Amino acid sequence: GVAVDPAALDDSEKERLCRRWIDEFWRAIGPRQDIPAPDVGTTPQMMGWMMDEYSKMVGEYTPGVITGKPVGGGGSLGRNEATGYGVTYTVQKAMSRFNLDPKKTLTSLQGFGNVAQYAAISFTELLGGKVACVSYWDRDEHTSHTVSHHTGINPRFLQTITDIYGSINKDKAIEAGYTIEDGDAWISKDVDILIPCALEGQINSMTVDLISDRVKIVAEGANGPSTPEADDFFRDNDIFLIPDFLCNAGGVTVSYFEGVQNDMNYYWTREEVIERLNTKMTAAFDEIIKVSEGEHMFMRDAAYAVAIDRVVKAMEQRGWLFVP
């Protein structure tokens, strides 16, 4: 990646940066090699610029070189909301294990970027649950805040007062009856589920003691939001963890779907994409929980075991390994 704050660049600078990155990196990527995907700070337009630059370098239209592209420019319907929806599908499976009624379930989210926005939307609209609060980074004040509402937040409304980088307009939120709290307030809410969707290391030895006794599930929407010390806390307090590389796999799953559609030059409807995503996420959860319960393993360890076993089997099939 590139160490830069995209909010500090105008559109021309962003485009030149994206194209130059491809100019330097194009030999290391490709639709049958490595395929970059969106991450923090990127937009579909940026991915489209990079695809276009790669196509120029190789002399042919190559949409499959990168994912997260704009719809109509080689992108997939459903890609934008995929990670957040995937979070909710795994949360739904976990709730069923605790006999939690989604309509009586309360959650708190850290972050309000792409993942958190669609996790909140799908949690409320698909499951009928309530989101107590979300946190966000205020780009003007250079600090984090938690936005809450006594009846639960309306994620669709908050989207309308949020910039493309997940920074909520605090004044407009206050005008709409929302309460602004400290950035760490999200983790101490009396909720059933915590969904960290911001940066890594946010649930750690310094913050775990803030977690309410009511919390039953932690769903890692972000990459690496919990430290090993936090994992110990989850084990000791019987908190069910949905590990990051299961919980937030919806994005990379639909990135894979995008590549499949690029290869076919045929594009599915949004409903087809979301249905396939639900099937994949549900199957992955079921496989990991089976190992977790059968081997009495912590969910993160079970997920690692499943993932490593798949890699080993693939290596054996290609003749790279011999395991007697």
UniProtKB/TrEMBL annotation:
Keywords: Oxidoreductase. InterPro entries: Aminoacid_DH-like_N_sf (IPR046346), Glu/Leu/Phe/Val/Trp_DH (IPR006095), Glu/Leu/Phe/Val/Trp_DH_C (IPR006096), Glu/Leu/Phe/Val/Trp_DH_dimer (IPR006097), NAD(P)-bd_dom_sf (IPR036291), NAD_bind_Glu_DH (IPR033922). It comes from marine sediment metagenome. One of its GO terms (molecular function) is glutamate dehydrogenase (NAD+) activity. This is Glutamate/phenylalanine/leucine/valine/L-tryptophan dehydrogenase C-terminal domain-containing protein. Residues 76-319 form the Glutamate/phenylalanine/leucine/valine/L-tryptophan dehydrogenase C-terminal domain. Belongs to the Glu/Leu/Phe/Val dehydrogenases family. The keyword Metal-binding does not apply. The keyword Aminoacyl-tRNA synthetase does not apply. GO terms for biological process: L-glutamate catabolic process.
